[in-house]
Amino acid sequence: SMSPGDTSVLAGLYGPAEAKVSKELPDRAALEVLLRPKVGLPGVMERSREQLLRQTCEAVLLGVLHPRTAITLVLQVLSDAGSLLSCCLNAACMALLDAGLPLAALFCGVTCALQPDGTILLDPTARQEQEARAILTFAIASSERKVLMANTKGSCSVEEMQQCLAAAQRAADTIFQFYRDSVRRRYSK
Name one GO biological process term (predicted). Predict the structure, then answer.
């Protein structure tokens, strides 16, 4: 579970298991991502985020190794104090890593809030998100800081988007270092 601030998400990965025939892909593993809100049932917001998360995971998952199987990633929101999508992305990457699935690269999520005056805040709180002119979330790969996914809410100029991306790419380095440290700790026990 990863928690920037007080947002935390628990990730569980199941599989590779035999895929239901309707879902099986002949050339690679089928990935299903389920996002469970803290309370209540998943809604439109969760469904659209599941799509973004799945596409991001699929971009790095070397699923060819397990054709006709299914992998299910369940993300349970424990608390949401802001920057939820990036927290989900980080939890997803850690879960894939933990499961020992073959990945072309690691990825992380970074959320930027663009303040009304144009300043950029990283990892905004829920309150900062409400006051922001735009909220941008990026999924960034560890190889060449490539952008795997970008999601924008609100309005910003192309230039502002590029500034947010640059800030997110710098922040990503810190998260990748955190991944490496936690993996190292786990294997040195």
Answer: U4 snRNA 3'-end processing
Which residues, 6+ apart, have CB-to-CB distance to 125 below 8 Å? 5, 81, 82, 83
- Are 112 and 135 contacting, i.e. CB atoms less than 8 angstroms apart? yes
CA distance 118 to 99: 40
| Ordered structural domains, the chain, with CATH | 8-188 (3.30.230.70)
Contact 59, 150 (CB under 8 A): no
Q: How far apart are CA 91 and CA 95, in angstroms?
A: 6
Digit-by-digit pLDDT tens for the chain (189 residues) are 444 458 898 998 887 777 776 677 777 778 899 999 999 999 999 999 999 999 999 999 887 667 778 889 999 999 889 999 999 999 999 999 888 888 999 999 999 999 999 999 999 999 999 999 999 999 999 999 999 999 999 999 999 999 999 999 999 999 999 888 887 777 776
